[in-house]
Write a structure and sequence with these properties.
17 helices, 2 domains, seven-stranded parallel β-sheet, alpha/beta, Rossmann fold
Length: 412
């Protein structure tokens, strides 16, 4: 069979699909990914066919992450990307033609319309909860209540309104009925769409009411492979063995004036706390990135390697990074930028694997708040929760489960 995935987003959106693609190829299938040029090397290294989508990966990060504050910001960001690549639907049609299944995520929902026009079934891939449940939500700080369930109410209408504005002219030109507020992305030609959540059931317990077409599989990655091939710099090796295990701090690729200030505040909090730390923060000025006996500044490093060498981790809360940290049994402090990152920070705290997240969507946290959270992080109170999460995650085999589900869905 031929599977084509459409990915608009960051490396965290693309890498899991590449890992799944490697498994599907090993099973004798063809796997292709349509995404940004920046991810071509990642995809082709795994023997997966790459198709170029003419959007800038840095702009995706800027519009949908760094500049994200409200749902309106997200909508504006999507329309900016659409304007930058007016031929995105033609590129999508070309990439998916001949497929047996098209996979897409939240920001790639346009692939649904391309697939519908060609009569190809779809699978949805989400990295945070999109199907209503009473258990948890991006849009509520509560759990296990009707209020949580109701927090999902406006989501379909919001997606449908954006679709009507962005896609209805294209749909009508291509012989499809206009999209409506009452339309749904959950069904195509009377069949429920196969849906994946490539995250751990420790974090997202499946809702029994969802049905067997929705799978919370466990993470899609082979982290040990990256660690094996990593050439460890001598000075990093010396730092790691020179004292107590450090904390690892990573802030990803998103850039803004606010995030630059956050990174400086975190650095100040670390210095005032007196803890040892390995820091990956590109917006800290080079003049401040000075290695000492307590600080080591690092560039690119496989998280699967460094997470085995540290005592705790601080990051923005992306699904894959968060999963790798929990897999390694690390107490985790999340300083999130957007809703899904805040969700994972809350869930880490709920299972006892880390402090409450320092959400910066409305207000940047202070040095004292960061310092207190760091002390809490390494206090020992979250060690057991992180260790228990690790045991459960290591039992999961998300890639195998997803590949089995795809084969069953297509062969049905």
């Amino acid at each position: 069979m031929v599977i084509t995935a459409v990915a608009v987003g960051t490396r965290g959106d693309v890498n899991p699909l590449a890992e799944l693609g490697e498994e599907m190829i090993a099973r004798g299938h063809v796997f292709r990914i349509l995404t940004h040029e920046a991810f071509r090397p990642l995809i082709e290294r795994k023997g997966i066919s790459f198709f170029k989508l003419d959007t800038d990966a840095d702009h995706v990060m800027q519009y949908l992450v760094a500049e994200y504050k409200t749902s309106m910001d997200f909508m504006k960001g999507m329309f900016k990307l659409k304007k930058e690549n007016p031929g995105f639907m033609e590129q999508t049609i070309s990439a998916i033609r001949g497929s047996d299944l098209v996979m897409y995520g939240t920001c790639g929902a346009f692939a649904y319309h391309a697939a519908e026009s060609l009569g190809i079934p779809c699978a949805r891939v989400f990295y945070s909860p999109m199907d209503p449940t009473r258990q948890y939500s991006l849009y509520s700080d509560e759990y296990d209540s009707e209020k949580v369930l109701k927090s999902y109410n406006g989501l379909p209408e919001g997606m449908n309104l954006m679709t009507m504005i962005a896609m209805n002219k294209w749909r009508r030109r291509n012989g499809l009925a206009g999209w409506k507020l009452s339309s749904t992305y959950k069904v195509m030609n009377g069949r429920k769409l196969l849906t994946f959540y490539p995250t751990s059931r420790v974090i997202m317990k499946p809702d029994l009411s969802w049905g067997d077409h929705i799978h919370v599989t466990g993470y899609w990655y082979h982290p040990d492979e990256a660690a094996v091939s990593y050439q460890v710099p001598e000075d990093l090796q010396s730092f790691l063995t020179a004292g107590e295990k450090p904390v690892f701090v990573a802030f990803g690729k998103a850039e803004s004036r606010e995030l630059a200030e956050l990174q400086m505040r975190v650095l100040q909090a670390i210095k005032e706390s007196g803890i040892r730390a390995v820091i990956q923060a590109d917006q800290i000025p080079k003049s401040d990135r000075v290695n000492t006996d307590k600080l080591y500044f690092i560039g690119a490093v496989p998280y699967s390697y460094i997470f085995e060498k540290v005592r705790a981790v601080v990051h923005h809360g992306g699904n894959t990074t968060n999963g790798l940290g929990l897999r390694a049994g690390l107490p985790t402090l999340v300083i999130p930028l957007a809703l899904d990152q805040y969700f994972y920070g809350r869930m880490d705290h709920r299972i006892g694997a880390g402090p409450a997240p320092l959400y910066i969507r409305k207000r940047l946290c202070t040095v004292d708040e960061i310092k207190n959270a760091l002390k809490d992080l390494i206090s020992g109170k979250y060690d057991r929760g992180a260790a228990e999460a690790s045991k459960e995650i290591l039992r999961e085999d998300g890639i195998r489960e997803a590949a089995d589900a795809i084969e069953a869905y297509i062969n049905y």
